[in-house]
Amino acid sequence: MHTREIGKNLFQIELETGGFKNLICSYLINSAKITLVESGPTSSVPKLLSGLKELGIPFESVEYLAITHVHLDHGGGAGTLLKFLPNAKVLVHPRGMPHLINPEKLWSSAQTVLGFVSEFFGKPESVPKERIIPITAGTIDLGEGAKLKVIETLGHASHNLSYQESFNRGVFPGDAAGTYFPEFDVVLPTTPPPFHLEAALASLDKLISLQPTVLYYSHFGKAANAVQRLSDYKNQLQLWATIAEEGVEKNWSLEQIRDKIVANDEVFRRVVGFVKFHRIYSKTVLENCVRGFIEYAKQKQAS
Ligand SMILES: [Zn+2]
After folding, report:
1. How many Å lie between the centroid of ligand 1 and the Cα of residue 218?
2. 174 C-alpha vs ligand 1 centroid, how far in Å?
3. Are 11 and 4 in contact (CB under 8 A)?
4. pLDDT for 167-189, tens place per residue?
């Protein structure tokens, strides 16, 4: 079993990307108009399809594939997945749309930024333009009174969307609210370059104003105390940014900046041992996410 009922009309599908558990998941909203949130990466599409079978969902009954953004681990599998879901349309931010239609540039930049991790995710296939619904805000009718609210939450990416489902009032933040480590009940920044702190903080305020009950992280899983978590995440981003700015000013290396963050962020300290020895997170969290703050600080200094 790799599907789990996690709320009213709501299921989590563990994608086990690259054989890793608790790394990436998709969600299924079992409304009159059946909706998937996140395709996950190309390499995980077979897992997602077997999850649908496990839940008894006929492929032709899926109406929407709502992706939070086009990064390989979230929307990379959309093109491949749609070949199996004949009636599904993709919800995406208009700035993400060209990358779904022509993923070549996305793929080559992912290979540069992520290195071997991009190979775990697999190369995205193109999504036919007529199957894409570009959207930045509003409400999608899921039938029988159910709704999916669309919220533009930039910062992690210039095109990140979040969604709120009406059955449980939970929010799918994509990467706008960090990475959740369910084994430790800890959240860490998801901030690869180009990261925009002010936009990220404004997005978190937007999500807090919705007063969500729970968060459904794409990395990874359902977490309670949503509002507290979002406001803690804001503080954490500000802490990392302050240290990165000091480090850039004093010409510290990435490692020095990271060490100072670890020394000052007690939440990070609880999980740093685990992250250090994780094949994926050691690359993404310990390198790319710190680098996102450094690039941000450098830009701020130059402006
Ligand atoms: Zn991600």
Report:
1. 7
2. 7
3. yes
4. 999 999 999 999 999 999 999 99
